User: Fold Glucose-1-phosphate cytidylyltransferase from Sphingomonas jejuensis.
Amino acid sequence: MKTVLLCGGQGTRIGEVTQGVLPKPLVPVDGRPILWHIMDSFARQGHRDFVVCVGHLGERIKDYFFHYRMRGADIRVDTATGAVELIGEQHDDWSVLVTDTGAETMTAGRISRVTRYLDDDAPFFLTYGDGLSDVNLSALLDFHRAHGKLATITGVIPPGRFGELHLEGDQITRMMEKPDQSDRYINGGFMVLERAFVDRYCAGPLADETMLERAPLEQAAADGELMMYRHQGFWQCMDTMRDWELLNRLAKQADVPWR
Assistant:
């Protein structure tokens, strides 16, 4: 089953880290790009066939995978012949197709542009290149297949970032400092889509100007074709430098939460 990764955005909110020269998916978390951690989490659960949609600074992501095997090995070079031998390499058994879907293309357009690489009658995973989770992909897929609709998103409850004030008029009746739980689900970015979803909601002349999260998913919800899989475990996006620092701290724990 294929996994499509949306990696074409500019990542402006984390510009302090990217400095305008590094695409957000290549921002390192404990020495490896966050994109690698996402793909590793899929591969650990048996899904190793990836389609990576790049755009802004996409050539850097292509370069990363072009030299992927060399990065994990020592090299011996015969300077007379140019022959290169990789020594002691440790590589992942993945298939990675990196495709340029345009620097300014919106997310629905990126998905539409890669349909030629998708199986006609099979669902596919879809996620972003900036979020980590321990979501059970088998359970997510079983849930999707059981309900028979065109799309499933993983709903997560985001960790509390700000304190909450409960009011009656102008009087504060209760104050909670960064609550761990609330009842507000958001799209955690781990999705399963049928190919028919793309054909129905993401195709057309305006696809490149359309955000997946707006008209396509909103219309699918209105049509009764969108379901939510509830995930109660770990989830963390990397929108800001603060998020990046948090993920680097978590990556150094004995039990890395997204593994």
Remarks:
- The CA atoms of residues 44 and 94 lie 11 Å apart.
- The two ends are 20 Å apart (CA to CA).
